[in-house]
């Protein structure tokens, strides 16, 4: 009996315990659910006018009620579903009152309404000026499409850059589309702003008196100095930061003491432009010349933009930056400081001087074949195939290659070694008196001459702990000289320029068989064809007497390869006909008073080497073609980019009593010699 009672007690205890255990988890879940915190999906949002954003209440308890309100309905309104709409730009607070089982809590979200708009409703720009329109309140992933109401007045680029073409007014429209998100609606806007283009106040001067008068006038946007006379002009001290200066003075010497918005040198004498001012930007768009930076001068930047230009820079003061934007040959004599050199196109730079400060040089990816020669220490960072020639005085030079697919060739005639850093961290040392070509991985790929064992790569090439070096002198065979732009001496029958006034270049550029270049100083020019100030119409050749280049590399010049420049004298002509073809061949034809074509003046405005074929036709009074004459025999050989040539007519046909037309075909060849394209100019007579 006692055992049965004990069993019943135990059974009852177990049963109660089981009931309790099965009921506990349910009680815990219900308690957690009842205490979950209600929140908003966003506590801060930014929308534009007309856009809608759902604030999304999270963890809403069963039976709970909500009530939405806005503290500033003029800025943002809210529906009872929690959708906020932008009304006008500004800020507001959205409140959500949640009531659960008699208890309430208030949730808030801050709303900022900002709508895309132009920074200005009207822009005033000068003709020829470029500005970028400012759009305020931009959104991520939004698109912006610009259009101009009058492209003859203003053009606009895809990024909002405006170019003022001519005087007038245009409306710029920008369509902005802000995309949809999972909780926000999309919206588009059409923005408008007015651009008013005013004409430039310009003046052209050619004397000191006229220049002084122009500078005293505060409203000139552009002053152009233009004269063919051999004179000296002085620009006095002054701040003309709103005025651009353009210089076309092939024979004048100019001393500048003033600060301008910009200075563009289109033509200057071989000697010289002297820059005494501080903070100027010099844009060199001339084929040749000599710029002097005196000791007290401090130049912000010298930009060399003319293709195939040949310049000498004497830096006695400070130049913050020299940038070479087009293929050029530049000699830099430095006794002052050059803070940086940036090379964007294939360039031959010779640096000579006594400066002790290392010159940082950056060679861009589009400057393959650049050659640097220096007796001053250089810190070179290059992304192109680059040749570096260092001589005594350039100790401490450093080279870093940033492109694994490019090589650096260093000839080291300094007293120390030169280390080349490569993109993968490998290093290569070029010891004193040695030459090596190092690829982007740090391996020596070539030595110009043998090292006594067949000319192979030295031991240690490519090692990250220093690498080896190669031996031997570096020799280049100059196969031709870059073409020089012909110089006009004047018109026959008039007083021609003297030899001193011609402005013959101070240096020439030789090109080796492998494409490398070297700048040779010209000691003098030999008057090969006997040009005088009374010469007749035609071409006159001058041959350069070359000096020794500032290079540690040996050069030999192939037999019969001379550096020459042609000086031409225009024939007397009553008429001059010209077709302006800015991207092709500029052509002029000159005739004598009896109507006979005497010669052509042709300029290659392309970037390619071309060959020409000329012919001309003449027609009767009714416009019928009477005959065609081929004059191609007068033009032969390669025609270099930027080169101007004078060609005598071989037929000497008189067109005096007929309507006539000269047609110029320019054939552009690629390296295989195949015709790549053709441009045609018609010179109507």
Give a written overview of the molecule.
This protein has two helices and 59 strands. The chain has 685 residues and is mostly beta strands. It folds into six domains: 1-35; 39-113, Sandwich (Immunoglobulin-like); 117-198, Immunoglobulin-like (Sandwich); 201-356; 477-564, no CATH class; 571-684, Immunoglobulin-like (Sandwich). The longest helix is centred in the N-terminal third of the chain and has 34 residues, at 2-35. The radius of gyration is 38 Å and the shape is elongated. It starts with a helix and ends with a strand.
- Tell me the Rg in angstroms: 38 Å
Main sheet summary: 23 strands, mixed
Mean pLDDT: 78
Class by alpha and beta content: mainly beta
Kindly, what is the distance between the CA atoms of the first and last residues, rounded to a whole number of angstroms?
142 Å
Q: What number of domains?
A: 6
As a percent range, the share of strand residues is over 45%
Percent range of helical residues = under 10%
Bulk shape: elongated
Low-confidence stretches: 22-34, 448-473, 573-583, 652-660, 667-685
Please give the number of β-strands. 59
What is the tally of helical segments? 2
Question: What are the defining features of this structure?
Answer:
685 residues, mainly beta, Immunoglobulin-like, 23-stranded mixed beta sheet, seven-stranded mixed beta sheet, 59 strands, elongated
Annotate the secondary structure layout.
Layout: H1 2-35, E1 39-40, E2 44-47, E3 52-54, E4 57-58, E5 65-70, E6 76-78, E7 83-86, E8 90-100, E9 103-113, E10 117-118, E11 122-126, E12 130-132, E13 135-136, E14 143-148, E15 154-156, E16 161-164, E17 168-178, E18 187-198, E19 202-205, H2 208-215, E20 222-226, E21 232-249, E22 253-268, E23 273-275, E24 281-284, E25 288-293, E26 298-299, E27 301-304, E28 309-315, E29 318-319, E30 322-324, E31 328-334, E32 337-338, E33 341-343, E34 347-353, E35 359-363, E36 370-374, E37 378-382, E38 386-390, E39 398-401, E40 408-412, E41 418-421, E42 427-430, E43 434-438, E44 444-446, E45 475-481, E46 487-491, E47 507-512, E48 517-527, E49 538-546, E50 554-557, E51 564-570, E52 575-579, E53 585-591, E54 597-604, E55 610-619, E56 625-630, E57 644-648, E58 659-669, E59 675-684
Parallel strand pairs: 2-9, 11-18, 19-20, 20-21, 21-22, 22-23, 22-24, 23-25, 24-27, 25-28, 26-29, 27-30, 28-31, 29-32, 30-33, 31-34, 33-35, 34-36, 35-37, 36-38, 37-39, 38-40, 39-41, 45-50, 46-51
Antiparallel strand pairs: 1-4, 3-7, 5-8, 6-7, 8-9, 10-13, 12-16, 14-17, 15-16, 17-18, 40-43, 41-42, 43-44, 45-47, 47-48, 48-49, 49-51, 52-53, 53-54, 54-57, 55-56, 55-58, 58-59
């Amino acid at each position: 009996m006692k055992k049965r009672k004990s069993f019943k007690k135990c059974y009852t205890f177990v049963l109660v315990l089981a009931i309790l255990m099965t009921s506990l988890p349910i009680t815990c879940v219900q308690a957690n659910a009842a205490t979950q915190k209600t929140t908003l999906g966003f506590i801060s949002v930014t929308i534009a006018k007309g856009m809608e954003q759902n604030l999304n209440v999270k963890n809403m308890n069963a039976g709970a009620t909500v009530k939405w309100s806005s503290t500033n309905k003029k800025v943002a309104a809210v529906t009872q579903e929690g959708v906020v709409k932008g009304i006008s730009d500004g800020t507001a607070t959205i409140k959500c009152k949640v009531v659960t089982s008699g208890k309430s809590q208030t949730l808030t979200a801050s709303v900022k309404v900002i709508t895309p708009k132009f920074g200005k409703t009207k822009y005033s720009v000068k003709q020829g000026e470029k500005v970028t329109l400012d759009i305020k309140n931009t959104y991520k992933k939004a698109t912006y499409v610009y259009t101009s109401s009058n492209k003859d007045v203003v053009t606009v680029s895809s990024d909002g850059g405006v170019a003022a073409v001519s005087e007038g007014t245009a409306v710029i429209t920008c369509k902005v589309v802000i995309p949809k998100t999972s909780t926000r609606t999309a919206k588009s806007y059409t923005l408008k702003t007015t651009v008013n283009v005013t004409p430039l106040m310009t003046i052209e001067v050619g004397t000191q008196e006229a220049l002084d008068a122009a500078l005293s006038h505060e409203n000139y946007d552009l002053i152009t100095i233009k004269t063919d006379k051999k004179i000296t002009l002085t620009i006095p001290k002054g701040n003309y930061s709103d005025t651009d200066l353009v210089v076309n003075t092939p024979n004048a010497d100019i001393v500048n003491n003033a600060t301008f918005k910009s200075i563009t040198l289109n033509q200057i004498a071989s000697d010289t432009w002297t820059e005494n001012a501080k903070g100027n930007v010099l844009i060199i768009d001339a084929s040749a010349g000599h710029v002097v930076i005196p000791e007290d001068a401090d130049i912000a930047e010298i930009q060399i933009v003319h293709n195939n230009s040949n310049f000498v820079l004497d830096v006695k003061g400070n130049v913050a930056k020299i940038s070479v934007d087009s293929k050029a040959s530049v000699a830099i004599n430095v006794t002052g400081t050059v803070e940086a050199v940036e090379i964007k196109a294939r360039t031959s730079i010779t640096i000579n001087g006594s400066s002790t400060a290392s010159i940082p040089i950056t060679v861009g990816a589009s400057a393959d074949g650049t050659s640097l020669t220096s007796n001053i220490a250089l810190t070179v960072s290059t992304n192109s195939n680059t040749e570096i020639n260092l001589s005594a005085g350039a100790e401490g030079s450093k080279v870093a290659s940033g492109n694994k697919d490019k090589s650096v060739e260093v000839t080291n005639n300094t007293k120390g070694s030169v280390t080349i850093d490569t993109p993968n961290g490998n290093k290569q040392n070029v010891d004193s008196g040695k030459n090596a070509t190092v690829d982007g991985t740090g391996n020596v790929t070539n030595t110009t001459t043998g090292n006594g064992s067949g000319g192979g790569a030295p031991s240690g090439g490519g090692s990250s702990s220093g690498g080896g070096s190669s031996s031997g002198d570096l020799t280049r065979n100059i196969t031709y000289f870059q073409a020089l732009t012909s110089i006009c001496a004047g018109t026959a029958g008039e007083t021609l320029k003297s030899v001193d006034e011609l402005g013959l270049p101070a240096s020439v550029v030789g090109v080796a068989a492998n494409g490398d270049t070297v700048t040779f100083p010209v000691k003098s020019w030999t008057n090969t064809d006997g040009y005088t100030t009374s010469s007749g119409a035609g071409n006159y050749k001058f041959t350069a007497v070359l000096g020794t280049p500032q290079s540690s590399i040996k050069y030999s010049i192939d037999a019969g390869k001379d550096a020459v420049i042609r000086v031409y004298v225009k024939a007397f002509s009553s008429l001059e006909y010209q077709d302006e073809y800015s991207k092709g061949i500029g052509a002029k034809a000159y005739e004598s008073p009896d109507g006979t074509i005497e010669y052509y003046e042709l300029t290659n405005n392309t970037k390619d080497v071309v060959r020409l074929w000329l012919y001309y036709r003449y027609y009767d009074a009714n416009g019928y073609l009477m005959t065609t004459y081929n004059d191609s025999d007068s033009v032969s050989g390669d025609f270099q980019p930027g080169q101007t040539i004078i060609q005598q007519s071989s037929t000497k046909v008189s067109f005096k009593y007929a309507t006539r037309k000269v047609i110029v075909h320019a054939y552009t060849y690629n390296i295989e010699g195949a015709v790549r394209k053709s441009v045609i100019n018609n010179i109507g007579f």
